[in-house]
């Protein structure tokens, strides 16, 4: 029988916060220690499921700046710590699980909701590559 999908949960019950500041710190710790790392390893299906409940789970924050940026962080250099979404400023080489390799600049406008689109060139013309699901991407390397 397949293993049921899990959602991010705390591993142990923390002590009850005594003040508002304690409560806020506890939530921030859960986001940093549980939710953020979970997004970096979850499957496309799990991420899309979480997206529908994002406001209830993460609060009133931009889903692209948090959930999807955190998910893409599993590939070093694809995101920038001070930017939401994928980093468009560096050309990358994307290897897919099927063996396909594509080179281009990530397009953050089109790379939404767990898909990656690259802008590259073919026959001296700009061309979009993708969209590629986060589950289809095996590796991302910067092009030197």
> Which class of secondary structure composition applies to the elements?
alpha+beta
Give the DSSP E fraction (strand runs of 2 or more residues).
15-25%
CATH class label: Mainly Beta
Helix content: 25-40%
> Mind telling me the C-alpha Rg?
17 Å
The CATH architecture comes to Roll
The largest sheet has its strands arranged as: 4-3-2-1-5
β-strand number: 5
Mean pLDDT: 89
Distance between the termini: 45 Å
Largest sheet: 5 strands, antiparallel
Q: Which regions are unreliable across 5 or more consecutive residues at pLDDT < 50? A: none
Question: How do the helices and strands follow one another from N- to C-terminus?
Answer: HHHHEEEEE
Structure summary:
The chain has 144 residues and is α+β, with helices and mostly antiparallel strands. The chain has one domain: SH3 type barrels (Roll).
Descriptive notes:
- This protein has 144 residues and is an alpha+beta fold.
- The protein has a single domain, classed as SH3 type barrels.
- The protein is built from four helices and five strands, in the order H-H-H-H-E-E-E-E-E.
- It has helices spanning 20-39, 44-51, 54-58, 64-72, and strands at 92-96, 101-106, 115-122, 125-133, 137-142.
- Helix 1 (20-39) crosses helix 4.
- It is elongated and about 65 Å long.
